[in-house]
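Two folds, back to back.
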Amino acid sequence: MAKFSWEARSKAGSFQKGVMEAATVSNVEAQLKRYGFTGISVKEEGKGLRKELKLPSFGSGKVETKELVVFTRQFATMIDSGLPLVQCLDILASQQENKTFKDILVKVKESVESGSTFAEALAKHPKAFDQLYVNLVAAGEVGGILDTILGRLAAYIEKAMKLKKQVKGAMVYPSTIMAIAVIVIGVILVFVIPTFAKMFADFGGDLPAPTKFVIALSNFFKKYIIVMILGLFMLSAAFRKYYATKKGRKVIDSLALKAPVFGSLIRKVSVAKFTRTLGTMISSGVPIMDGLEIVAKTSGNVVVEEAIYKVRSAISEGKTIAEPLQESGVFPPMVVQMISVGEATGAMDTMLNKIADFYDDEVDDAVAALTSMMEPLLMVFLGTTVGGLVIAMYLPIFKLAGAVGG
């Protein structure tokens, strides 16, 4: 069979292209028409340089969250339209620009063709499809509502991606300002201050105390800057090594939750992630015990993870979810009360999603408040530090000008 490259317009009106194996051009056109494509253009591979020339891949070598969302939404639409599973995978693989993701989808299609379920085929590629994704797909296959489940999955991933972006956004601004401050202060101490120091030495006379301090600080930096940089690298490596241990991760994650400003934000993010993930899984038909295990593994914080495992253990002993959640001390009283109401009314998934929506808004407000608070503090820090260095170096000049004027 030959390979044919094709270009066509989908039912939604978007322009798509891909490569398909078939006996003739007519077979490719007929198959694309069955998929609902129009404006079809087909060309056999191997004409001119097309067969031999392989363009290098500049992809990241991993599946991005956005690509996963697009794939999930398109797949849900195709399944809902009645297209067979294998054909959906074939189309989506052919139009995938990320080579890594394309190879994964081709392998998933081959596994399904060999007799594996869709969930089993996805489970072979954990770097692209995590446990949550696989379990929800499995529940959708069993319940015959794969299109609905995929729609929920896409919505969940989008909201999780938005939450992650919010937290990253809160960290980027202060990190950028601090990095600029360190660079500016370093340049002043290493390159600017020595010039002033040489000039003052030529003038002679006693220097003001602030100027002496800044010159001494500059000399220290020039002498030990390599040692300080190496020390920072070593400290960073030691921190990562310590955090990689079970005890170290627990200590640091616990301190993170108790941090004055960021602790509240981390707690809100954890609650939003826990309730959103568990709510999505329960509403999709995943057993609560399996759901809690997956939620615990994807929590991102050891303290929260242990609290969820305690909840899971308590449920296996016949207790409700609300009781161990309250005992953990990790989750706010309002969350515990709302989950308790959800259990009593049999609307646990709805209640969990409501809590998640509420805490998504709380994270929005916390990020905005944090940014508003950090802006003036960082500006004051930067202005005071750089301004202090400049003033200290100009004090002798002011003193000399006063003496000359007198």
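---
second:
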Amino acid sequence: MNVTEYLTCWAASYKNDLINNIMPFWMKYGLDQVNGGVYTCVNRDGSLMDTTKSVWFQGRFGFIAAFAYNHMDKNSEWLSASKSCIDFIERHCFDTDGRMYFEVTGDGRSLRKRRYVFSECFAAIAMSEYALASGDRVYAEKALELFIRVLRFITTPGILSPKYCDTLSLRGHSITMILINTASRIREAIDNPVLTARIDDSLSDLKTFFMHPEFHALLETVGENGEFIDTINGRIINPGHCIETAWFILEESRYRGWDKEMLETALTILDWSWEWGWDKDFGGIINFRDCRNLPVQDYSQDMKFWWPQTEAIIATLYAYEATGDEKYLKMHNQVSDWTYAHFPDREYGEWYGYLHRDGSVAQPAKGNIFKGPFHIPRMMIKGHVLCNEILSGLSGTENIKL
């Protein structure tokens, strides 16, 4: 395989797929032209199944539409869609205590909140990316203010309910990793010491608490001081989350001139997580594993969801850019071939989200409260940019045997 040809092909494919498939699908079937914002509970053909709106996705699509505008095509409709999502957020998605809802009705009436601050994180990156796209610094300032509010929520006792229960104090990987990406995205629009400081804290927490070399694993849930909790929940490995964390750290390493310590941490997490996650029998990244190889409780434990595959595609490209090690391009080839053979819907467009272990479709809907226009278009945008960055440093003669 000629590396230049391989990366050139994928760069073009990512851009074509985003512009001619993914974005048109959601602009047609998801964008709410009446109330603003975006619907995500759509069937295979794009028909609306439920008007409940995911607050996560108001921020997520607000970010994606602006991110695509900034990196793929100056499409004014995408910029307007981003603003529509942000306007909907500001009108309808904040409770009186400053926290955000998890679900609202189609016209913006509140339904429920959850203990997480992911709604706030996604809203913040939407605002910061829109600031970059529109040139309106006010939205960057709003993003920073919201991020500082998030830090207050997670550090002030009594605001958020416990991770598990009052009698067992736990730390969760998810919030640690999402704050890296949230801070780095906001920093693109407005720099502030609190952003890099929070990234440093998350990196320290990952190494101190969540990385467990005895299992070659990054665990999802640990004790308050990083203790291994030998229970079903404590033994869980989520390969997709871990691989996503790896590329967040690789991105930060590159920002700091390929910081060696960060690079080593990221590659270690990626290598561990690929070994746990790649299904050697059927291909694809599996949902959950137990670090003692005991049976996993979650009913979807051996399924293949859309988003772990997209995270692996981004992470392997970043790892190859960082190291030039051909094993990462081979991993990219493996996960890309499997993903594109099973997830895209050739008839109605977009991708399926939920597959059985063997790659057969478990259910055909294109969206719900958790799946919508985020991981797939983000992968295509990042993939296109990374392929072109790598190509700019190649001589044109590199060959790899797959």
